[in-house]
Amino acid sequence: MAAGWEEMTAAVKMAFEGNWYLLFFFVGLVYLLIAEKKWRNFTIPSLILSALILNPFLYRKLWVPVLTYAYWRTFWMIPIVPVMAAAAVSIAGKCRKKSLKGAVCVCTAVVCLLGGHRVYDSDTNRFFPITNAYKLPQGVIDVSDYLLAQEAHPRALVDSRLMCYIHQYTMDIDLMYGREAYGQYILAVGADQSAVFQQMESGNPDFQMIRQMMQNGSYTYLVIDRAKIPEGVQITDSGFRFLADVNDYSIYKVVQE
Amino acid sequence: MIVLQLAVLAVLLIPVPWMIGRLVISRAGFTEMSLLTGSLAMILAGNLVMWACFQAITLPFILTESSFLLPVMLWCVLTAFFLFLSFLTYRSDIRHSRPGVLSRVRQKLSRTDLLFLFLSILLVGYQCYKFALRMHLDEDDARFVALAVDAWKNNRMFVVHPGNGDYIGLYVADDFAKDVSSPWPLFLALFPKLTGVHPAVFAHTIYPVYLLLLSYAAYLLMGYFLFQKNRTKTLAFLAAAALMQMFFGGSSHSEAAFALIRIWQGKALLAALGIPLFFTLYIKLVQDRDRRLFFPLFLLNMSCCLFSSIGIIFSGTLSLVFLGWYIIGCRRWRDFPAAAISCIPSLVYVIVFIALTQRWWV
User: Fold this and answer.
1) Predicted ipTM?
2) pTM: predicted TM-score of the whole model, two decimal places
3) Which of A89, A129, A168 faces B146 most closely, judged by CB atoms?
4) Do B279 and A164 count as a contact with CB atoms less than 8 A apart?
């Protein structure tokens, strides 16, 4: 039970990092339970649901077996925003003077701002200027169009900056690996593909080995970020023919022996 | 050409769900609503019908490795049928002078109403701006959008590896089974198939704005029912909810982070729309005690199953707790059969999911 409690509180801390919304929710819920009796058919089941989710016993016996790593998603079921917003409007509604109502609104805004964290400010939640209509990196479009101009269904080994995005533009390009190369994904990566990925990310890739693996899998094109080619290394010396520089990438073709 | 594509898309996203939704809403006890709330309720209900239909018809086609065109055509036939039915019931309602969804009484907005309306438009508008005119890259799309692109271009459903593009046959075992029982990526390919718009453009630019507006429509209706149609309080509730959503950040795991960053993904749509809409319909249910409201709850349950595999679990859990309270706490024993029927989608798709992961049918 103690271990379950620790794991559960760690998940709560992770999910509510940077804001006090879970605390605000419980304060709002207690207020609504006391002050708004007509809403009890909503607030009481909300309390029951919270007790079922934030429960170290059920955490071990129910949520982790069912949801595995995604226990934190159960917090989405807790009506945090509806309860907080309803409590704020209810408090303002009970004030008779307009100035007091306004003060409650201002306080609510201040509490949200100071007790929360703007969603868009987290590192993983950043938005960037648009580069094209597809909202994909421009390199993806340029490289894909170049490869498709060479063949109808090219088979390619592409840089890690492209591998997650090319198939969002076109499925006509076969890749040696995609996102699964990072590991810990619902699809496993093959041993050979993983070895090639490690080489590509090593900073000093063994292009002879990469070429061999590409030939084994009938992959024709190598697309590599120019910044990742070590100084003084000529990829053409390893059995590749240079085709073009497209965006930040150099494209090579395997020379058939 | 682009203008024509966008025009067809606009018709599919607004008038079609509006008409279909009218059929559901008018028969589920939603009457005498204001123009804004009534229209939003109809569009929301129409989308629920469209999602639920897609979820109901797609699975057999996926399991038989059929062309994506078949469920698309069947979905179009069903949608046309519901449109026709909606038109017939509309004529019948007018002929028999039944109370409509929309009230004919128009009220003027007070200064306070206008202030909260302005704040809501400002906050929601800013969030829409992020989706429409800014770009967020998410690696989960390497699966969702890639599968949508494959269905759109090659008419294949879950038979290729989204990472490398190899044909691997229908993947139904292990973790991937969740895509088959909750085929949201295929829905992302449906409207592009009908209009010609690329799925990446649809999923990253057009649909997020629409879905975010639907999400706030659910919050608006929640406030509308909670505060007994009090307009000032409803608009204040909406403004507060929009502000709270925007500052519910810090980690990337909160419901608001999913709703405001990547709403086009099924799990995020569940957090942004599926769960709030459940609370909205539940609040309406406990207020009206009208058994007909179990029908939109059934559609919502089905839609949550489409969004994500956790939607199957969460809609079942929410139904169990909240509808359980409604039956026992409110002593509505006679509503038990209707409540149980509204939970059937969760039950069915849990069994489907287990059957797929365990390969029972092989």
Assistant:
1) 0.95
2) 0.96
3) A168
4) no
